[in-house]
Amino acid sequence: MSRVDKKFVRRAKRVRYQVRVKSFDKPRLSVFRSERHIYAQLIDDSCGRTLCAASTIDKTFRGDPQKTANCEAAGKVGALIAGRAIDAGIKEVVFDRGGYNYHGRVKALADGARKAGLLF
């Protein structure tokens, strides 16, 4: 395991601990970022179930000629996951950025979700 991977795992463990401490039975908004896409899902940790999910590979992004690996697309995914969460009756979540820094696409996704009405 390289030094960068060790730092990522250490950050992810630290973030996951903080999420567990602050959750109070709120769903967790988990983010995964790849080179080409970004994924977000709401997870209920009490029963281990995914409540709703959104990503840049959804049908809403297929006809769009825009790139899927930029901050604009991440903001749209944030708004999409917030809309689906509000439709499911969820207003407050805990943000789990994993081992990623709160910068760039991860921050754009969080800002998009906040603008669409999700509280965290």
Descriptive account of the structure:
It is a single chain. The chain is an alpha+beta fold. The chain has a single domain (3-115), classed as Nucleotidyltransferase, domain 5. The protein has four helices and four strands. The chain has helices at residues 3-22, 59-62, 71-87, 105-115, and strands spanning 28-33, 38-44, 49-55, 94-96. It is globular. The mean pLDDT is 92.
How are the secondary structure elements laid out?
Elements: H1 3-22, E1 28-33, E2 38-44, E3 49-55, H2 59-62, H3 71-87, E4 94-96, H4 105-115
Parallel strand pairs: 1-4
Antiparallel strand pairs: 1-2, 2-3
Helix pairs in contact: 3-4
Number of strand elements: 4
State the CATH class: Alpha Beta
Helix content: 40-55%
Number of discrete helical segments: 4
The gyration radius over C-alpha positions equals 14 Å
Strand content: 15-25%
Please name the CATH topology: Nucleotidyltransferase, domain 5
Mean pLDDT: 92
Shape: globular
Class based on secondary structure composition and strand pairing: alpha+beta
In short, what is this structure?
This protein is α+β, with helices and mostly antiparallel strands. The chain has four helices and four strands.
Keywords:
alpha+beta; 4-stranded mixed beta sheet; Nucleotidyltransferase, domain 5; 120 residues; single chain; 4 helices
